[in-house]
Amino acid sequence: MNSDFLGVGWATPPTLDGTGQIQLAYYETSVRQAIWMILSTAPGERIMRPDFGCGIHNFVFAANSPAAIGQVVSEVRRSLIEWEARIDVLDVDAAPDPDQPNCLLIQINYQVRTTNNRFNLVYPFYLE
After folding, report:
1. How much is the mean pLDDT over the chain?
2. Backbone φ, ψ for residue 22 (5° rounding)
3. Which of 49, 76, 85, 97 sees the fewest Cβ atoms within 10 Å?
4. Residue ranges of the IraD/Gp25-like domain (predicted)?
């Protein structure tokens, strides 16, 4: 199976490796970092791509309620489908973190299209 389609790019955050070169992210790591970047970017934050990102940042001051959780899940799913063509979104779920009452743990289960490998990612999102 050829993983070249998944790409190689700068690691996020940009850092230097042991030889002083820009550290790179390969294949599935590149996909995982792209998902994290989509979720961490609010629409309008990037001047040259104002539509890029995920609208969950509109819920930063929302109450930790089932309605807000449902909207966050819907927005995460929509953003990943729109901005990350290398994956199929299998499931998105969110639940309050039992240790931090104002934190939602967003769990994303996805499958990389070219390799059929399945992964999950948990993204902490802070409310209020």
Report:
1. 88
2. -60, 130
3. 85
4. 27-116
